[in-house]
Amino acid sequence: QVQLVESGGGLVQAGGSLRLSCAASVRTFNSYAMGWFRQAPGKEREFVASISRSGGSTYYVDSVKGRFTISRDNAKTTVYLQMNSLKPEDTAVYYCAARLTGYPNTAYSGPRDYSYWGQGTQVTVSS
To answer: CB-based burial of residue 40 (10 Å sphere; 0-12 exposed, 13-18 middle, 19+ buried)?
Structure first.
């Protein structure tokens, strides 16, 4: 069983930055591909970014390319999402997800690709 705990959300003005963290309680963290999703009120959960278990491959939704960066520290069993130039439309609950995989360089973008989810952290961007 993998437990994921997100942190780092909050209220920020448009144009500001936040760094989300997701700590995983698993010793074999480097066997898991990781992803970030978000869900705004009244909308479906949306893919944001993902990273392969090796960290060598990353994938982003077009709306965050050039603004968000996903990274991981396997020694700390933590994945990060650096969010810059935030916009009001980035307001959502952000979820971390994990998938056990045998492929070191594959990043996944579908919610059904992931087996484990965190509880979410709220990000609110004011205009």
So the answer is: middle
**Can you tell me whether residue 100 is helix, strand or coil?**
strand
pLDDT digits (tens, 9 = 90+) for 38-47: 999 999 999 9
Query: What are the DSSP calls for 2-16, one per residue?
Result: --EEEE--EEEETT-
Nearest alpha carbon to residue 61 among 102, 90, 22, 21:
90
Q: Poorest-confidence range of 20-24, 27-31, 84-88, 90-94?
A: 27-31
Q: What is the pLDDT of residues 23-68, one digit of tens each?
A: 999 989 999 999 999 999 999 999 999 999 999 999 999 999 999 9
The residue to which tokens 């970014």 are assigned: 49
Look at residues 32, 38, 41 and name the one whose alpha carbon lies nearest to residue 107: 32
Q: Where are the beta strands (DSSP E) in 1-115?
A: 4-7, 10-13, 18-24, 32-39, 46-51, 58-60, 68-73, 78-83, 92-100
> Residue 81 has which token pair?
């999402």
